[in-house]
Structure formats: structure tokens, C-alpha cells
Amino acid sequence: VRSAILILLVAVVYVGGKMISERVLPEMKARQTQQDHERRLVLVNELIASQRYDEAEETLRKLLGDAPDNAAAAALLPMIEEGRTCQGLYEQVVEFQKQGDLLAAQHIYQKLQTVCPRYEARDVQTRLQQVNDQQELIMLFAEGEASVTAGRYQEAIAKLSEVRSKSASYQKAAIEQYLADCHLALGKEIIARNPPDLAQLPTAQDHFEQTLSFRTRDAEAATQRDLASRFVQGKERFDEGEMDRAIALLRPVYDMAPDYLGGMVATLLYDAYVASGDSFRGAGDLPSAYEQYRKACQDLAVADPTLACARFSEAVANVTPTNTATVTPT
Description:
By secondary structure, the chain is an all-alpha fold. Helices cover 80% and strands 0% of the residues. The chain has helices at 2-49, 53-66, 71-74, 76-99, 102-115, 124-150, 153-166, 172-192, 201-214, 219-239, 243-256, 260-282, 286-299, 306-318.
């Protein structure tokens, strides 16, 4: 009985061992091989996603060497080649952009988008936007420059200000000089209008201030700003009947620019002197009236000083200054 049991046990062990060696072990090995292939496929996909194409290809070819019939692995080879092509195009774009060749960079970007619609470099869209923005800045600056040259100053200001709003650094010095020139020219054009357009004087003042904001030491802009400011204040005092204050503001303007605002400053100053003289005469201050009439008659280049000269003559007859002046209208 013992012998029979022993024989039975040996038979069971033999059959079991044979089954393990012939079926179980191969199945385990096949499963392990499949898991290894799947692991390597995952790794290849990760390398492709991170654009490490050389490593991806090396890993994939080893896998295909072990499993030449692995269709999933074989399908990754074209993806690696496409990725390399796209990465090459992207690197060309970056290099062209660094060199400042924006047209070439833009051309390659367009090719990259066509050939590699799935390419997902982290900053590809950002770089494309940078190139497009730079191209727009170049175009706007060129248009603004052309407008300055042609004397279209408002148009130039609009174009160049748009450049500044898009980029604080692009052609900064040149744009500031152009804007200063444009604002100065526009302000002077308002002052030179004949007949004068008094309603636009605040606009002229603003143009001169803008000029000085770009060129703080621009003597001409500072002078024009001060002349406009004095004239506006002087006109306000004149309209309010404050003739002496009006004269104090307007006379420096006349002395520096007798034909200011088409000669309006001379006319306004003339009327202020006459009105001031009348006020002094009415108050019985004939010497002061005499002096105001004299200035209106002799100092100012006006078309018709007849009234002031007539009143000056009357004052001469009633005042005996130390040195009596001769009535000689200018």
C-alpha cells in the first residue's frame, strides 16, 4: 500500500511539474513580456510628449527588436518623425525671431501650423503672437513716420501713440521726438491762423504742454506755451474790464510777438491802453492818462491809432511833462 501511495505521489508530482513547465511558466513569461512591452510603450509615449525624440526612438526600436509585430509600437515611429520635423521648424522660428528676421519667422510659423497642426510647444502661440505684434509695430511706426514727413500731424500722433500703447520700449526715443514735433507744429498752426480762432487756444496750449512732456527743454514750446497762457489770461482780464491787469499780461506778448494771433494782441492791447487812459482821465489823473494814450498812439503797430493819438494830443495840451513828446503815430 505504501508503495502504491508513493508511486501515486511521484506521478502527481511529475504530471504537475510537467504542466507547470509546459503551460504555467510560458504563460507567466508571456504575461511578463507583454507587461514589459506595455511599460515601454507608455515610456515611449511619455518621451514623445516631452519632445525627447532621440530617446523615444531608441526605446521604440529596442521594443520593435523584441516585438517586431507590435502594431502599436510601429505606429509610433511616424509620430516621432513628425515631432522631429515640427521641433526643427520651431527651432528655426526661435532663431529667426532672435535675429530679428520677423518675416522669415512668420513664414516658418505659418508652415509649422500647416505641417504640424497638433504640435504643442508650450509657447508656440505666444511666439506667433509676438511676431505678429512686432510686425504690427513696425507697420504702424512706418506709417506714423510717413505721416510726419507729409505734414499730417494729427494722423501721425494717432499712429505713433498707438505704437506707444502697444509697446513702451519700441522706438521710444524716435517716437517721443516725432510726437514732440507734431504737437509743436499743431500748436503753432493754431496760433498762426488768420483770422484767429480763439476757441482753439486751449487746444494750442495743450499741444505745447504735450511737446514739453516729450522734450522738457524745448525753448520754443515753452515760449509758445507762455505766450498763449498770457494772452488767454490777458483777454479774460480785458473782458472783465480789468485793463491794467490786462495790459500787464498782454504787453510782454506784444513785445515778443507783435503780430501774435494775426495782430490781435496789438489790437487788444491798444484798446486796453485807451480804456485805461479814459479811466485815468475820468478820475482826474491826467499824467497817467497821458502815458496810456501815448503808448497806444506811439508804441503799437495797429492799423488805425487815430483815436489814441487824438486823445494823446488832448492830454498833451493839459499836461506839461518834463519832456513833452511829439505826437508821431506808428
